[in-house]
Write a structure and sequence with these properties.
- The protein contains six helices and nine strands.
- The protein has 231 residues and is α+β, with helices and mostly antiparallel strands.
- The protein starts with a strand and ends with a strand.
């Protein structure tokens, strides 16, 4: 599951207000009132052009061969399979440890026509997968993601489509050996609420005096991106 920030509403009024904020940004496809930032570790080394922010657009829809997965459509593009750990697992793994949607309205919603998506991507570091196991030594990259739309599985499906699936993603990368999905909700800004923003740090540096948990997070990150190249 994705780590990091989680928005909870303490009363029905707050739930309605926040739902409208997110829905407004999704329908317009721009960061009008909500700005989200994620960090992810992906398989492969994206081109150097990704060292600057790149904007990728497309359309996302239900994968007709699955009752759970999504797929990205893009003019002149096709579903990328490079850097997928196990294509057989990725193609047959259904519900990512959860049963398929049983409610008709949920299935119908998933089967709707493709909806537009926009994802902003930037490479922060490139390195080698340093955790012990069958994937040790594989090229991996730390990327920053800003989804301007909020579709189901948008980041996971879009990065896979671009050829750089997220480490630990069983459904899209076929990676069953990593201990978790390497996707972290890093920051969230509500522009309509006095420009308030919240941040869930997940970086390598640990200020003096921080506790064991913070240091453990830093050690894990160093282990994951061994021999990294800072960007």
């Amino acid at each position: 599951a994705t780590s990091g920030l989680l928005v909870l509403s303490k009363n029905p009024g707050a739930l309605t207000f926040m739902s409208r904020l997110f829905d407004h940004s999704n329908r317009l496809g721009v960061e009008v009132e909500v700005k989200k930032t994620y960090l992810a570790v992906v398989f492969g080394w994206p081109p150097e052009s990704w060292d600057e922010e790149q904007v990728f657009e497309g359309k996302i829809s239900m994968d007709p061969g699955s009752g759970f997965k999504m797929r990205v459509e893009e003019e002149g593009g096709s579903f990328a399979v490079k850097n997928v750990v196990d294509e057989k697992v990725a193609s047959h793994w259904g519900p990512s440890r959860l049963p398929p949607a049983s409610r008709p309205w949920t299935r119908d919603k998933r089967a709707q026509a493709a909806r537009p998506i926009t994802t902003v991507v930037k490479v922060l570091e490139r390195g080698k997968f340093a955790l012990r196991g069958p994937l040790e030594g594989k090229p991996v990259s730390l990327v920053r993601l800003r989804p301007k739309t909020g579709r189901r599985h948008q980041l996971r499906a879009h990065l896979t489509h671009l050829g750089f699936p997220i480490v630990g993603d069983v459904t899209y990368a076929g990676d069953i050996s990593s201990y978790r999905l390497m996707l972290h909700a890093d920051s969230l800004e509500f522009r309509a609420v006095n420009a308030r923003s919240v941040h869930s740090p997940c970086d390598q540096s640990v200020p003096e005096g921080k506790g064991r948990r913070a240091r453990a997070r830093a050690i894990k990150r160093q282990a994951l991106l061994g021999n990294s190249q800072h960007r």
